[in-house]
């Protein structure tokens, strides 16, 4: 028998590793817990953090595995969030603020 790499086993191993990788939502929850335990935060701050996550990140990035995200993907999403926020606030448009 020839020794070498068996592609089927390589794919199975990669799949197992990918299944163990955190999603953005799981990472966010872990970070929020870490943040609350290391430096006490008020209920209002915690609520603001959760609100920002649910409004801006959960729908688009929540299910994406951390290993599959790139800086470009996150920056593109933030650009869209900024653009939508700017368009939805007519006062900012009137005053010319960003």
Automatic annotation (TrEMBL):
SUPFAM superfamilies named among the record's database cross-references: DNA breaking-rejoining enzymes (SSF56349)
Keyword terms: DNA-binding
InterPro entries assigned to the protein according to its UniProt record, in alphabetical order: DNA_brk_join_enz (IPR011010), Integrase_recombinase_N (IPR010998)
MF terms (GO), sorted A to Z: DNA binding
Protein name: Integrase SAM-like N-terminal domain-containing protein
């Amino acid at each position: 028998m020839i020794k070498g790499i068996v592609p089927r086993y390589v794919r199975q191993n990669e799949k197992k590793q990918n299944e163990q990788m955190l999603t953005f939502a799981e990472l966010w929850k872990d970070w929020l817990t870490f943040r609350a335990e290391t430096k006490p935060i008020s209920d209002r701050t915690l609520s603001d953090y959760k609100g920002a996550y649910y409004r801006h990140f959960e729908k688009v990035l929540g299910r994406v595995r951390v290993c599959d995200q790139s800086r470009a993907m996150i920056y593109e999403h933030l650009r869209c969030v900024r653009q939508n926020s700017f368009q939805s606030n007519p006062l900012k448009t009137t005053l010319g603020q960003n």
